[in-house]
Amino acid sequence: MAAQMNPQDYDFRDPDSDLSAVFSPWQFGGLKLSHRMVKSAAGSDTQKGSEEEAVEYYANFAKGGVEMVWVEDFLKFHDNFPSARATEIADSHVKAVVDGVHAAGGYIGYQLSCMGRSFSGFDAATAPMYASAFAEHLTAEEVKLVQADFINGAKKMQDLGFDAVEINAAGNNIGQAFFSRQRNHRDDEYGPQSFENRARFVGEIITGIKEVCGKDFPVQVLINGIEENDIDIGEADLSTTVEENCKICKALEDFGADALHVRLGVFRMHVCQFASDLYFTGNGIIGTSANGTRFDFSRHFEGKLLANHDAYGMMLNVAKEIKQAVSIPVGTVTCMNPAHAPKFFNDAIKNGMCDYFIMNRPLTVDTEYVNKLREGRLDEIAPCTRCLHCHFDYDDEGKTYEHCRVNAATQRAWHEEMPEGATPLPADGDKKVMVIGGGPAGMEAARIAAERGYDVTLYEKNGYLGGLLIFANVIKGPHENLDDLRKYLIRQQEVKGVNVVTGTEVTREMIEKEAPDYVVLAVGGKRPELELASNGRTEVISLDDIAAAKVGDHVTILGSNAQAVDTAQYLIAQGRHVTMVSPEGKEKLDKGQSSWVKQFTIPMLYANGMRLWPNASIKEVRDGEIVIDGETGCDIVIPCETVIDARDMLPNTELIDGLSIPCVAVGDCNAPYNIAEAIAAGNIAARRI
To answer: Angle at CA 687, nearest 5°, toward 406 and 507?
Structure first.
């Protein structure tokens, strides 16, 4: 069934690199732009740090070639319905951010939103999970007050120097409630009785903004382009269709909207409205809804999503329909990434599927994305691996920990680990740096050290670079672009002038003979020794041996980290019956994976029949079965033909222990965890040389 539902075409990445349509001019209101890539409104968390961090974060997009940069709503602009989470304008760095983007040659816009507010008929503080305000929760007076907040907010942003505003009327925002038959049961002029009525609430905000800011001040509207029920799959009679949105969007154009930003609309998982690729996360479970069920993209969402390209451009068909109904520009979101598939995205513009791409993660991973793309340096663009560590992620202690797997400077620049900012400081004198290990941590350390100006040699005992990225790419499948990451890091060794020596295992004697000024050890962690022995028809193997072993139909995985979970998905997709035995508690399941990925993969493991035994051990391996000892208080005997030991790796620093030469261990050999932490450790270590 996994093979039959939502089949994918992974060969859509045509090597043709013609990007003439992507780099063609267009106009947003009075703003003239020379290419079709726009930075979405995301990244407001940088406003919690220093002014240097905030300015650098946004200005770097403009320096890297982005011409239209949107800023997510974080300011206290509402006079009538203020957000407790918002920052006072006077206490923010917003003016410096605006000036920084302008100085870098870009335009900057501000997204106005009203999500999570309380009204006379709705208390956001006591509302049940996933609940949001309905249109009828506002009195007639409150309608006018909310509209006034948006209109006055737009004027405040214009006075601060913003070049445009976007009205967020999607998701749980109140504007979407007025568009929706599900959330609008009013019987006045704002009710669902006509499309003009449904558009009137937002339309009057547009009109009001034009009156106070001038008719040439651009206004963009963000809407749910198509909706589907992700709580009770298939029960979608009140979900807004594309056909309805075409009528609503035409009405918004008549009210004066200058552009439309269309994204996915679902009721439960707000993150999937702009990161819809989460539906494609996990080997063999494409379409997962995060509650153990799956969408059939050929039927759900009216069957209109372009959902056979691993989530890339999945809203293009919807955007095309809306574009045909209006005469203003239409942009769309979700893995819009011309560097990933140039012909696919160039054709999308050339064939009129949309007018511009709304992008965030690809630009955050590599702020020079547009400049490199324009210059044809596609192999030098750092790839987004769609891991979602960047959005409301949490560490194992439950603390917010947003970061980027590939760009270690994100959310670290100007903080304790990188006080110098995103750009590494120049070399401190002439130094010879030896990097041992060609995995992600080692290649990142070599890249940064060489960029700084040091003489860097990277040694790898195997005849190739990549480390565990190769294994992870096979197990996870193509979705996370880990092979692209490997190729990018290898290319960076060439670009930065790193001397790469493969097929050479470094010894302590070799280190002393080479006499480097600094050593970075990145040889990876060690697998714990097998504590169980094979018995008859039940074979015990290490996770590293899975490719060579004959894995049976009934598999038990010992361990519950991200590698263990990825392996479970890989085996379940092949039709194996998988059991997981973890020495840790249930709360540690899939540790090292982002919080969002966990919300999609874990329910599907259970739905596909995997049983987790937490705080347990394998007491005995028998011929064709194993005995589990855990929280039940009694022995559990289950069929098992293969036990895969995927317990946490162990540190592996013996090679440099006691060396007199300055040295540091990074990645799994120091603190085994995940790809993101390995890359960050390599980056930070190279900055401190």
So the answer is: 90
